[in-house]
C-alpha cells in the first residue's frame, strides 16, 4: 500500500476474471440457443418472444452481477464515483430487463396467450418489482443527499443482503424459465437428450456457476473495498452535518 492505495488481494482478480468469462459465456450461449433452435430474434413477428430470455440474461443476470461486483473491482477509486457506476449498471440492467418484459407481454397479446399463470412468471414479476424497489431505495439512501449518516449505516446491511438475495432469485427464476421453454417445445422428447435440451442444460449449469462465483466474491470479507482515509474524514463531516455531532463527541 502506497499513497493511500490498497493493493487488491492476490486471488481476487482471478475470481473476477473467471466471473466475467462465465457471464459472457452465458450471454453468448443464450444467443446461440435462440439462434440455433428458436429461429433468432426479431421485434415485429413471432420471434419477439426470444427478446425476453436474452434481455433477462443480459440485464438481470450479467449486468446485475457486475453491478454487485463494482465495490470489489474498483477498490481505490473515489467512493462517489464507485456509487454512481454501481447505480448506473443497475439502471442499464433494469432498462434491458424492461425491454424483455415488454417483448414477452406483446408476444402473449399477439398470440392470445394468458399472462402471469406460471411459477416462472410469478417469480419474474416479483424479481422485477423487488429490483426496482431496491434500486429506488438505494438511490434515496446513498446517492440522494437526504438520508442521515446513522440511517445510511443502519440500512446498508439490509441493502447488501437484499441485493444478493434478488440476484440469487433472478438466477433461480431464469432456470425456471429455461426449463419451462424446453418443456413447452420438446415435451417428452426432452428426456431423449435432444441437442437443444443438452445445450440448454449446460446453459443452466453455467448460470448457476456465474451466480455462485459472484456470491463467493461478495461474501469474502477480506475482499471488501477498504475505506480510504479521506472517505472516513468525509463520513465524519457528513455525520456532523446531518446529525449535529462532531467526531470528538463520540
UniProtKB/TrEMBL annotation:
Catalytic activity: monodehydro-L-ascorbate radical(out) + L-ascorbate(in) = monodehydro-L-ascorbate radical(in) + L-ascorbate(out)
Keywords: Cytoplasmic vesicle, Electron transport, Heme, Iron, Membrane, Metal-binding, Translocase, Transmembrane, Transmembrane helix, Transport
Record Gene3D superfamilies: 1.20.120.1770
GO cellular component, one term: chromaffin granule membrane
Pfam family, one: Cytochrom_B561
Matching InterPro entries: CYB561/CYBRD1-like (IPR043205), Cyt_b561/ferric_Rdtase_TM (IPR006593)
Cellular localization per UniProt: Cytoplasmic vesicle, Secretory vesicle, Chromaffin granule membrane
Membrane topology: Multi-pass membrane protein
GO molecular function: metal ion binding; oxidoreductase activity
Transmembrane segments: 12-36, 56-74, 86-107, 119-147, 159-178, 198-218
Its biological purpose: Transmembrane reductase that uses ascorbate as an electron donor in the cytoplasm and transfers electrons across membranes to reduce monodehydro-L-ascorbate radical in the lumen of secretory vesicles. It is therefore involved the regeneration and homeostasis within secretory vesicles of ascorbate which in turn provides reducing equivalents needed to support the activity of intravesicular enzymes.
PANTHER family membership: CYTOCHROME B561-RELATED, TRANSMEMBRANE ASCORBATE-DEPENDENT REDUCTASE CYB561
Protein known as: Transmembrane ascorbate-dependent reductase CYB561
Species of the source: Chrysochloris asiatica
Lineage, opening ranks: Eukaryota, Metazoa, Chordata, Craniata, Vertebrata
Amino acid at each position: 500500500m502506497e499513497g493511500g492505495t490498497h493493493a487488491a488481494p492476490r486471488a481476487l482478480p482471478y475470481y473476477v476474471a473467471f466471473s466475467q468469462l462465465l457471464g459472457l459465456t452465458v450471454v453468448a450461449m443464450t444467443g446461440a440457443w435462440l439462434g440455433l433452435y428458436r429461429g433468432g430474434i426479431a421485434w415485429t413477428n413471432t420471434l419477439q418472444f426470444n427478446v425476453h430470455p436474452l434481455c433477462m440474461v443480459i440485464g438481470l443476470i450479467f449486468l446485475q452481477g457486475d453491478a454487485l461486483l463494482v465495490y470489489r473491482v474498483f477498490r481505490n477509486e473515489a467512493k462517489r464515483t464507485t456509487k454512481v457506476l454501481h447505480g448506473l449498471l443497475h439502471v442499464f440492467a433494469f432498462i434491458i430487463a424492461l425491454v424483455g418484459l415488454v417483448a414477452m407481454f406483446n408476444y402473449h397479446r399477439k398470440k392470445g396467450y394468458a399472462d402471469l399463470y406460471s411459477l416462472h412468471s410469478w417469480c419474474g414479476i416479483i424479481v422485477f418489482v423487488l429490483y426496482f424497489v431496491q434500486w429506488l431505495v438505494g438511490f434515496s439512501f446513498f446517492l440522494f443527499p437526504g438520508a442521515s449518516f446513522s440511517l445510511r449505516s443502519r440500512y446498508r446491511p439490509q441493502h447488501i443482503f437484499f441485493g444478493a438475495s434478488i440476484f440469487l432469485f433472478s438466477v433461480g427464476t431464469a432456470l425456471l424459465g429455461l426449463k419451462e421453454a424446453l418443456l413447452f417445445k420438446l415435451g417428452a422428447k426432452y428426456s431423449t437428450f435432444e441437442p437443444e435440451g443438452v445445450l440448454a442444460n449446460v446453459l443452466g449449469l453455467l448460470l448457476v456457476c456465474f451466480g455462485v462465483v459472484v456470491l463467493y466474491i461478495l461474501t469474502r470479507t477480506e475482499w471488501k473495498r477498504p475505506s480510504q482515509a479521506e472517505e472516513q474524514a468525509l463520513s465524519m463531516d457528513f455525520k456532523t452535518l446531518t446529525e449535529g455531532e462532531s467526531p470528538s463527541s463520540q
